[in-house]
Amino acid sequence: MAFLAPWMLWGALAAAVPIILHFLFRSRYRRLPWAAMKFLRTAVEQVQRRLKFQELLLLITRATLLVLLAVALARLSSAARPGTGAGDAVDAVLVVDVSGSMGARDGNATRLERAKAAALARCKGLCFDPEPYGNNPWDYPHQAHAREKSFAEYQAKVRQRGAEFMQTILAYLPRPVIHTFFQLSLFGEVMEEPDPVRREQLLSQHGYALLPAFLNGMLDAAGPDVIITDGNEPAYYYTDPLQYYRVYHLIRQRALALVAPENVRKYQAQVQVSQALYVDYVFGLGVWGERSVPARALTAEEKARWFEHNTYYALQTSDEYVWLYSEQMDWWKNDRLPPGLREAVESARRKLANREPLGFEMADLLKAAREKQEAELRAKLIRRTATIPRLKANLKPPVIDGQLDDPVWQETPPLEEFVRYVTVPNPQPEAPTRAWVTYDDQHLYLAFRCAEPRKEAMKVVGLRRDDSIWMGDSVDIFLTQGESPTPYVHLILNPQNVQWDALHTTQDNLGFNPRWQSATALGDAEWTAEVAIPWAEVHIPPPSPGTKLGANLCRQRIPGEEQSCWSQTISGFVEEKSFGTWVF
Length: 584
Prior knowledge:
Elements: E1 2-3, H1 16-27, H2 38-74, E2 76-77, E3 105-106, E4 109-110, H3 111-120, E5 125-128, H4 151-172, E6 177-180, H5 188-191, H6 196-204, H7 211-221, E7 227-230, H8 241-252, H9 264-270, E8 271-273, E9 275-278, H10 279-283, H11 300-316, E10 322-325, H12 341-353, H13 363-380, E11 385-387, H14 407-411, E12 419-420, E13 433-439, E14 443-451, E15 474-480, E16 488-493, E17 499-504, E18 508-509, E19 517-522, E20 526-534, E21 548-557, E22 562-565, E23 580-583
Parallel strand pairs: 5-6, 6-7, 7-8, 9-10, 11-23
Antiparallel strand pairs: 1-2, 3-4, 12-22, 13-14, 14-20, 15-16, 15-21, 16-17, 17-18, 19-20, 21-22, 21-23
Helix pairs in contact: 4-7, 11-12
């Protein structure tokens, strides 16, 4: 048996207070003889005996209550609290709001029950990842009512939703830390525009156009004890200290251009910079072991030094929190930690605590690793060239219905089967893909046959043109406008015949919307597609014999997580250096 707060037993001395007061009050009265009152003495003495007994009981009760209160505050326990030693400070206080609003039921539990669970778990806050893994709720041009409602109207509604989001969190956690994977750190290009009107136009076309409004709503409802972090997820891939310093300035200063004037002080006081560390990328774990990343050309010791480098500068440029992400290791169970990871983190923290410099640089080593890795992989690439036949005069252009039953596809030889990334040990995909290409003076015609043995596992993303359809099953078409790698046209099509298009130059033009025909069809163990692209719409002159264009065709397959291309790539589809050649 032990007291968790033995110092509170000193409170038992308070029991002496009523006793002292009792005797003080008794001393105030003095006996004076008075003959006229003698006849009352007998009756009074009887009453006094009864009152003295009552006073004694009251005195004992008061003293006992004070002693019991002191014992209660001292918290008698039969065992020490797990994880603490004798005399450790208590750092959690459970305050329960039992008002009527806490009885409201959210799902399977009341707010009171959820608040109790959060408090008992000592929940510091929660994580909020704004990244959409499907239809994008932040992309204004592709919202359901974007044609009827202005960007300002959508911003107002999203700001309201942000405030409601914050109010819901505060119902369970009155002083939360809300760690977001990213916020205004994504809008560097928008912030560079000095003209507010033009800046708002640029923001409205951004893929996360409505995210700043949501953050402003959160700030509207945030109390003074709320902390929101901007986790700067792009720091996953940082290699240079300047990247950390620049983004810190961006989040702390330049981002104010996207904060409502009435929220600027709140933003400055309650939004923190929080840098990200990505274990899998730096150490080449999981899928990153199959991609063109510097880790593939580094030794185990060099990877650990790189992680120490990133940890050091992440800690140096964060206000309070640095977050570490991995899909391969389990930090809490000490399971599958890469060699040198723990030591790298400890070393970076120790150097900063002692105000020591990191002591080494990584720029030259990482540059050499990237160049070496790319050279090795490009030497292995399957670079393809194909002769594209002209549509024969005796054949009609294909009917674009997705069926591939037109005579032209029987007469046109298929391209070679698609292959997976060069970094994948087995380049042959589980589900093969074939394509056919022909042309005339008006159109380029393409057909795809995508085998799919696991049709039930297919994932189709997007409902409208230019939705994020590449996040589901889809096919990509890349075609240069000349013999140079850029500019080039990029078209994507999914099994529900939703289109996406862009023109890539020195900057991506996502507003490029050529009119092209497409159709798809779902079979028993495959899906097929037909496409007709007018040359005039993609600003390419009709090819004359011998014309050469850079091209590639790729397929994103969700079942099996397969990516494959006609001309092999290193680690992604958007690799103009890996385009094959079409000779017309």
